[in-house]
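FORM 12-B: Structure-to-Sequence Request
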């Protein structure tokens, strides 16, 4: 009995020993295999990946001349705008208009109290009459040699001074009434009846008048559209309600904005019914013609390592990244320039391969 227990214990120890030996040899063999595996540097792996011939889908794209209607945000501006000032000091007697009124050139908008200006005008006229009589008398006396030439010159000088005084009195009297300088809308009134306008004030502003017929629309356009602007005769201005109004380009800046590198363009539109206000946001549609445009799917676009948008083309069975300039984009089509007139573009697989990778391709219907 005791012998059998000893035999069992020896058998168990022997079995564990054998298992341990095989496990140790297996562990060492695994380590040797791992250590004996040769290492590859990153450049070798990258070169190996570039030499692989990936299978991609592609399509030949041919450029063509395309008219693209580009939209630019703009703002309506008045044809004219002026702050109407009083030309003399005084007190407001009557305001003949209200804000929003349309006025014609020459309409009286404000009147000032006389403040003795009528009397000054009458006095100036009397002074002129007196000096004229004195000058005529001096001429007669000088002709008979009863007076010296100096006396005649003095009489003439007095007459000229009187004429200047009369002109000043007439001008100040006329300035008691303030008239509209052109047809327009009274946009803002700055004074109230009986308000005092003093020479010591910084300005003598009475109201602001804006001319809304015609209207100007100002936009900023990029360099690529600048060359074509001078040949455009007609453009279209789209309003907030999607109505389109024909417009004419009347000004193109010759100097680009230093910060945005864009050019200011001014467009004139008809507003004879005065229905359109100044300061309204609109869109200007410019029909621009580009001679070398490819129409591609948005899914064909790839990004370079620097984040530049472009496409992956196939040249001599290798990929080549080509940057593009998107001149117009819709949900289904990008219109791009900056590419050769004809090339093969990768349509599927361009985002998983690198520039310069060898590829095999099949034609795509997309």
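FORM 12-B RESPONSE
SEQUENCE OUT:
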């Amino acid at each position: 009995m005791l012998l059998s227990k000893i035999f069992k214990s020896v058998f168990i120890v022997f079995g564990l020993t054998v298992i341990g030996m095989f496990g140790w040899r297996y562990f060492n063999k695994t380590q040797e295999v791992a250590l004996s595996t040769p290492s590859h540097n990153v450049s070798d792996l990258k070169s190996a990946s570039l030499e692989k011939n990936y299978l991609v889908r592609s399509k030949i794209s041919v450029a063509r001349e395309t008219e693209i209607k580009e939209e630019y945000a703009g703002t309506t501006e008045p044809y004219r705008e002026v702050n109407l000032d009083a030309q003399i000091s005084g007190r407001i007697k009557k305001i003949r208009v209200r804000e929003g009124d349309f006025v014609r050139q020459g309409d009286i908008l404000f009147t000032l109290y006389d403040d003795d200006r009528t009397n000054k005008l009458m006095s100036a006229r009397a002074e002129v009459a007196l000096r004229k009589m004195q000058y005529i008398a001096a001429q007669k006396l000088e002709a008979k040699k009863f007076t010296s030439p100096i006396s005649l010159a003095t009489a003439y000088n007095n007459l000229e001074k009187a004429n200047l005084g009369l002109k000043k009195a007439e001008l100040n009297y006329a300035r008691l009434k303030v008239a509209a300088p052109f047809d327009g809308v009274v946009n803002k009134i700055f004074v109230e009846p009986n308000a005092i306008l003093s020479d010591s004030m910084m300005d003598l502003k009475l109201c602001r008048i804006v001319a809304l017929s015609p209207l100007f629309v100002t936009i900023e356009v990029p360099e690529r559209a600048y060359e074509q602007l001078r040949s455009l005769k007609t453009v279209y201005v789209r309003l907030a309600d999607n109505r389109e109004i024909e417009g004419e380009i009347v000004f193109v800046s010759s100097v680009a904005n230093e910060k945005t590198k864009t050019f200011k363009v001014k467009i004139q539109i008809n507003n004879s019914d005065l229905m359109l206000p100044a300061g309204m946001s609109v869109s200007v549609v410019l029909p621009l013609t580009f001679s070398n445009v490819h129409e591609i799917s948005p899914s064909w676009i790839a990004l370079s390592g620097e984040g530049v948008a472009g496409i992956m083309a196939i040249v001599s069975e290798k990929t080549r990244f080509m940057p593009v300039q998107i001149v117009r984009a819709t949900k289904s089509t990008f219109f791009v320039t900056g590419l050769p007139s004809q090339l093969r573009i990768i349509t599927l697989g361009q985002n998983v391969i690198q520039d310069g990778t060898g590829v095999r391709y099949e034609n795509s219907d997309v």
